[in-house]
């Protein structure tokens, strides 16, 4: 495994995630991926070879093993980890698409042109919906795989003894699993971590929706306040214009040219 590539990939996912998303990523990487890589192969590497039944009937052991373990636990976990981490990569790809589009726009119209995105990594518009649907997909994947574990294995996590009656076994055959207690502990651990990831994803969904609703309400309130301020200023200006207009009309009406003509001789006579 190329750890440098994995580190760069995880840092990119961590950069565009919320606080709950960073915690989810840490849980997946430390408690699921690392446990799977370090311990899973050693614990389950010999499960079919050491699955023994108290019969020498040809094919009976293989049929019983296939009946109790139709899907290997390690392969089931590997599929779960692949499907649950792919949506986070889609978010990184969407951000890369935005950055490339912004770069081409700048090259075409110059450095001083208006930007297409105020922040290419900010969850707005299509990126918000990509992030939201990625959370729903991760939640669905974890829930489906937990259901498959309980449905396929019937919640019997590695019992000490399993009884098989499948053909071509001649009768009820007792079969034994190697290290059942150790495998049961790891199985319970992986199921519990999956439940924790589901809870973290639910918290992140509620946080994302709540934050978006709060921002929309705040934006609408600011718009209403600005609109109210504009209406108030317009009303004040109109009132001032209405107050000035009667004063000017009164001045014009009070001014009579005949009065000026009559008053002029009186002034001249007084001087003479």
Q: Quick one: biggest sheet?
A: 3 strands, antiparallel
SS element count, helices: 7
What is the CATH-assigned architecture? Up-down Bundle
Strand proportion: under 5%
Membrane topology: Multi-pass membrane protein
Domain Connexin N-terminal: 42-75
InterPro entries: Connexin, Connexin_CCC, Connexin_N, Connexin_N_sf
Organism: Chanos chanos
What does this structure look like?
- The chain is mainly α and 272 residues long.
- It has a single domain, classed as Gap junction channel protein cysteine-rich domain (de novo design (two linked rop proteins)).
- 74% of the residues lie in helices and 3% in strands.
- The chain contains 7 helices and 3 strands, in the order H-H-E-H-H-H-E-E-H-H.
- The protein has a 3-stranded antiparallel sheet with strand order 1-3-2, with helices on one face.
- Strand 2 and strand 3 form a beta hairpin.
- The longest helix is centred in the C-terminal third of the chain and has 75 residues, at 180-254.
- The radius of gyration is 39 Å and the shape is elongated.
- The termini are far apart.
- The model is unreliable at 247-252 and 263-272 (pLDDT under 50).
- Residues 42-75 form the Connexin N-terminal domain.
- It is found in: Cell membrane.
- GO terms for molecular function: gap junction channel activity.
- One of its GO terms (cellular component) is connexin complex.
